[in-house]
Structures are given as C-alpha cells and as structure tokens.
Amino acid sequence: MSICVLYGGNRIDGNTETITKKVIQELNVEEIYLIDYRIEPIVDKRHAPEGFPEVHDDYNAIIERILPHQVLIFSTPIYWYSMTSVMKSFIDRWSQTSRDANYPNFKKIMAEKKAYVIAVGGDNPYIKGLPMIQQFQHIFDFIGAEFSGYIIGEGNKPGEINNDLNALHAAEQLREKLRNS
Amino acid sequence: MSICVLYGGNRIDGNTETITKKVIQELNVEEIYLIDYRIEPIVDKRHAPEGFPEVHDDYNAIIERILPHQVLIFSTPIYWYSMTSVMKSFIDRWSQTSRDANYPNFKKIMAEKKAYVIAVGGDNPYIKGLPMIQQFQHIFDFIGAEFSGYIIGEGNKPGEINNDLNALHAAEQLREKLRNS
Amino acid sequence: MSICVLYGGNRIDGNTETITKKVIQELNVEEIYLIDYRIEPIVDKRHAPEGFPEVHDDYNAIIERILPHQVLIFSTPIYWYSMTSVMKSFIDRWSQTSRDANYPNFKKIMAEKKAYVIAVGGDNPYIKGLPMIQQFQHIFDFIGAEFSGYIIGEGNKPGEINNDLNALHAAEQLREKLRNS
Amino acid sequence: MSICVLYGGNRIDGNTETITKKVIQELNVEEIYLIDYRIEPIVDKRHAPEGFPEVHDDYNAIIERILPHQVLIFSTPIYWYSMTSVMKSFIDRWSQTSRDANYPNFKKIMAEKKAYVIAVGGDNPYIKGLPMIQQFQHIFDFIGAEFSGYIIGEGNKPGEINNDLNALHAAEQLREKLRNS
C-alpha cells in the first residue's frame, strides 16, 4: 500500500516526529511537513451565493499529493489537547474541497483510505489525549475513511518518547502491519 | 464582571455568532473576531536554546485585549468536531506567551478568569461535540481558569440555530447569569 | 407514541426521578422502577456449548413490558460517573436476550425504538457525565435504537434539581416533543 | 508493593482474565473474582435520616481484603461499553462505605492506592472503550487514588486476546513495572 505521512508538528525533531520515523523506517513513504507550507484558514462560503473563492496558498498542492495514497498517517503532537492548529487548518479546508469542482471525487477518494493517528503529548496523554482520538474518529467517519489505529505516546522534552516502551512497541507493530499490507 | 467574547467563526453571521449575540445582548462586552486578524501558527521553541522569536502578527494585540477581562467566552462553530483552526491557532500560541518575558503573569492572570464555551454544530453536536467540550476542560484546567459553563446548539444553514429551543433557552439563562454577576 | 420509563435510581424521590416526572407529567407512560425487581448479573455463556441457562428472576418480565413501547427513557442518576449498577445489570442481560430463542426478534424490535437518557449528578455532571452519554450512544448504536436526546441535570441533595433551570427547561421541551409525537 | 486484582468478568477464562493473568504471573497477588460473591446494589440513604442500613452480603468482606493493598487492578471486560454490572455494584457501594462508621478512614486509605485498569472488548475497544477509561479517571479522582495506567485489549471469543500483540506487550510492560515497584 502507498503511504503518506502528514506531520503537524510545530518544531523540528519533536517526539511525535521521532516515533513516526520509527513507524516508517525502511518503508517507501511520502512525507509532508505541514509547517513548511502556507495553509490559510478556511473562510466558510458553503452557504454564500458566490461560493468559495480560489485561495492562493499551498493547500491544494498538498491535497494533490495525498490523494493518490491508500494510507494516511496523521502525525501530530497533542497540543492543547488536540491536533496542532496547522493540521487543523488543513483539515478544516476539506469543507471547501468537498465542494470544489476541481475535486469532484474528493469524498469518494478519501473514503477509500485507511487512516492512522500518531500523537505524543506531555500532560498525561493516555487520558487527556482521548478526546482528540474521538475527534479523529468523527472526522474519519464523516469523510468515510477507515480509522485503522492510533498510537499515543508520552513525552515532553526532545527524545523523551524513547522512554515510552509501550509506544515504541506499538510503533514497531504498526511498522510490521504497514510493511505486510 | 468584565466580559470578552472571542469569535472563532469562519463566516459572517454564522449560527454560533447568532446565539452568542443573544447571550450578550445589552451587556457591555468586548468582541474580538479572530478571523479578522493574522495569527501565525506557533513555532514551538520551548526547548530551543534561542527561545521563541518575536512574531510580527496580531496575536499579542489580542492577548492585551483579553487579559483585563474577568470572563472569556469562546464562541466557535464545531468545525470538524473541534474549534476552528483560527481559534486553535490563538490558543496554541499560549505556549509561547507562557514563556514570554513581556507577560510574566500570563498564567496567573488567566487562572483568575471564568471561561464559557458557546458552540454550534450541524452533525449531531450534542454527541459529536462532546470531545471538544472535554478538550476545553483540559485547556482550562491547564491554564487554571474556571470552566463555568457551555452551550451546545444545533444548526447548519444560517439561522437554523433559531430552531434549537433548548440552546436558545440556555443562552437566555447565561445572559441572566452574566448580567447579575 | 407509546412511552416507557426505566428508572435506575437507588433511592426514592431522587433528583433524577423528580425531573423525569416533569418530563412525563400528564403523558400516558409505563413506569418501571428497576430497584423494585431482582435482576441477576449476567453469567456470560455466549461461548459455552450449553448456552445460557434460564434465570429465575424478574428480568424477562421487565423485557416483556418494555418491548411494546416505541420510546424508552433511561432515567438514571450519574452514579460514580455512569448509570447505576441496577440499570447496568438490566442492560448487561441484553447479551443473553439477544441469543434467547424466546425473543428471536429482540434486536430487531429494539432497533425500532427511540431512546432518551435523563441523568442527574452532583459532581460537575455537565463535564463528568459526558463519558456516560457517550457510553449510551455506543449502547444504542449497537442495539440499533435511535438516541433521540438526553438531559443532564445538576443536583445532589433531594430537590436540588429544581435549581437547575436549564435542565428544567429541557425537561419541558422534551415533554412537548413527546406529547406531539 | 502489595497487589490486589478485582475481576469483574462474567465468565470463566474470559479474555480479560487471560491477559490479567499475564500481568500478574509470578507476582504475589490477591485475586478476587467478584462474580463469586453476593453484592447487593446500593440503596442510597445518604440523605435519609436513618442512614444506611447494614447489608448482609459479601461486600464488606471484599472491602476488608482490598484495603491493605497498595495497588488495585480493576480487570473487567468492556461490557456494553463500560465495566460489568458486578464491578459497578461493588464500586457503587463505596458511597455507603464512605459514610460507614466502621470504615472511618475509607477515603483516606483509598487515596493512597495506585489503580490500574485492564479491559478487553470485542467491538472496537480502542475507540468505544475510551468513555469507560474516562469514567475510571473520574472515579479514581473522586476517591483520590492515582490512575497509574490502563491496558485495552481486543478480543471476543475465548483466547482471541492472544492475537492482540500490542495488548500482550503492554501486559508484559506492566508486569515489569509492578515487579520492580
């Protein structure tokens, strides 16, 4: 299966990126660091007569890159108890793409994908990260994608994720699963 | 009590704004429409030796405006099952302000505030909006503010919130509470 | 529509019963106080060759009474952050009834019902009662019933629910809805 | 540390018991199978002038057995998306013990304990078991115990838990942690 990772991290070499790299090592993966791109917040014109305007940013180029893949990995620190604003900006814009004549099959294509979430947090993520997991479940339900699994890890300072043996093992298991699929 | 409303809406006259206006009518309130400002996503430098750089956007000006108030109302559509990315960008930046020498008492001041959430969604918000409410609870717990109440409403097309009688009544109750506090 | 209330309360005239009575006043409703009956905990024989044994308690008689109704109202205090054990004992036994040759259409009949939850708690129920609401959503999803709405109220000592004006208003709204359906 | 396991399972050799046995193998542990005892549902007399009556069942004997231990493991199948009614009956009665003159230090003693949850479910437990984890968090917060960790596993038919490698690994990790504490 063809795999794409969307990194939502707000810093280089964060714990979430570290564990995600363990998941994808030696796999053929397309990696997208959302922080490197300009993604405007959505201006919601669903109910406006003129419809959505064209937005001159990098969003559509990222959409083009994720659409061909069968597996999407959403890799985000648990930031203020949900995904980062950069990743949220990206997902919010799906409301626009769903109505964009240039992507008539957007929802249909998204519905064929398998989605994973990898998330590391520093403040009791195994409890306080659960609402975010439930949010992702609702997101994937809406778009029709299969929520195939998630990894929660604990870490705050750079490298701390390496102390979370359960998360590391789950990363190894996910790598096996992706390699054999 | 002095009240500030933070609007996270992605469109003019959305349902969330409509019901929020009912809550604050005839009250003396400072209103901030986040979509009108440029708020950069955080670049997380908490663990970088150089620390956070100065960011040239409108974020600090908004912080200055909210700090004097005793009550903060977070008014956001339930967008992809959480707050909008605009509001999330604003909250994510609190990580920076918490370490900003220009705001040495940021957390202390925030901890004295009462916070409310007003949120309207179109896809079964009374169930699918609950993870967002839990997320806000964790946010306010972290910053030390009191989560004094929330209103969930249902609506999709403009004006539909006016059919949600429970939400309208809750808005009326909240208005009474704010007026008498 | 024909309505049945299942009371899970552990005491007489508790707050949950009080507000439920407001919902059903002047409506024609069958009321079942689970605490008045003997309901054995399930002994799970789903995977045992001999299957489930007959249980000599009041459970089946209650099932007979709820099956004819189109609306089920689950009225339970939020007790240790979920429904009471009496109500949980009742629901757990559905696993047995689902395989009981005497009730071959159990799931089909349950799937035609509309379900409501009325729940009052004393410890920040608007936040800490939310996992229970999510639990009920999963229960109704599994059995196929429609989760048509819920009321959360706050109260601890007898009568305190009368101070929760939002809950009382929601009760009034639900009564109107049931009366007109 | 002294460890006590409370089994809430409704059947012999269920998946939850299987994985719990892996956690405690070769450790010195007191095991209590709640299904083997008679635990009456609470009759809530917190606000009744006469107070709680003495209940002639096995509940207090179980309380006596758990109080001396420093670690409590709540081992329950995810049954209708929460703990079994047997375990819930046991916990509900804590409301009585908290006011029982024979156990004046009940809450103080409970507050010194570390609590773990081990839970296996058959219907997407990694998502649909999360409200139960949140319920346990609220329970332990109320009683003051530390929620030190949890394991969710997937399995339905007997033995299926052995296919959930992540859960098995987490069991092994927890065993190491308990052995060294």
Automatic annotation (TrEMBL), chains A, B, C, D:
The keyword Transmembrane helix does not apply. Pfam families: Flavodoxin_2. The gene is ywqN. This is NAD(P)H-dependent FMN-containing oxidoreductase YwqN. Keywords: Flavoprotein, FMN. PANTHER family: NAD(P)H-DEPENDENT FMN-CONTAINING OXIDOREDUCTASE YWQN-RELATED. The keyword Plastid does not apply. Residues 1-177 form the Flavodoxin-like fold domain.
